[in-house]
Write a structure and sequence with these properties.
With 142 residues, the protein is mostly beta strands. The chain is built from 2 helices and 6 strands.
């Protein structure tokens, strides 16, 4: 299974372009995602992750996402390679967005932004949240 859920801040405004072959919109941006743990005496570190959003989702991201805004992205990891004009092979790993959400709290961001907890619920990592309930083992598909 290839599924990624990230929450972080945009390091720049999304960059939008269209493919040459079929004129499909593609929007790309980078998220600064804080690492979960901080070593004592050190500053919190972040990973900078490249995100690509296609078609309607890309249009949404380019229209509403701005540098510094906190967003949540659900997608998949993809790797690709290409050769440049000098014959040098380049490798890139990026997240292809399948879903995108506003994650700023209403006091931090615009009033129209949704809160991350309103979208995903207030669940602890590894839990299913309060919505998930099994009444009996007969309901389980396995």
């Amino acid at each position: 299974m290839n599924k990624v859920i990230l929450m972080g801040r945009l390091t720049r405004d999304p960059e939008t372009r269209y493919t040459q072959t079929n004129n499909t919109l593609v929007s790309s941006f980078s998220l600064a995602v804080n690492r979960r743990f901080v070593r004592q005496g050190e500053e919190r570190q972040a990973d900078f992750i490249n995100i690509v959003a296609w078609s309607k989702l890309g249009e949404f991201c380019s229209k509403y996402f701005k540098k510094g805004q906190q967003v949540a992205i659900v997608g998949r990891i993809q790797t690709r390679t290409w050769d440049d004009d000098q014959g040098t092979k380049h490798y890139v790993t990026e997240v292809v967005a399948e879903e995108a959400y506003f994650a700023d709290s209403k006091r931090d961001g615009d009033a129209s932004n949704s809160n991350f907890e309103n979208t995903f619920g207030n669940t602890a990592p590894g839990s299913m949240g309060a919505d998930f309930e099994v009444s009996s083992n007969d309901d389980l598909p396995f």
